[in-house]
Amino acid sequence: xxDLEFCxxxxxxxxxxxxxxxxxxxxxxxxxxxxxxxxxxxxxGCGHLFSAEQIRFFGFLSANALRWALxxxxxxxxxxxxISSFR
Length: 87
Known about the structure:
By secondary structure, the chain is α+β, with helices and mostly antiparallel strands. The protein has one domain. The chain contains one helix and six strands, in the order ββββββα. It has one helix at residues 63-84; strands at residues 4-6, 13-15, 26-27, 32-33, 40-42, 49-51. The strands form three sheets. Strands 1-2 form a two-stranded antiparallel ribbon. A hairpin with a 4-residue loop joins β3 and β4 (32-33). The radius of gyration is 17 Å and the shape is rod-shaped.
């Protein structure tokens, strides 16, 4: 699957996975970051750094969807643990 990005500065088209720069999808107002998950890319044409719009994690999740999936997973796990302790 190809995740093509377009640079907003020079309109260069490139593969977003090849241009990933640094990691961290911020969770809980930027306090916690998930290591190895990055949405920042650098244009190989002009060097402009910007947030990727087309990149998908696990083939179908955008960065925002991944963040919400992780938050809901943590909340769901906490609820399951809390409910199971009352039995």
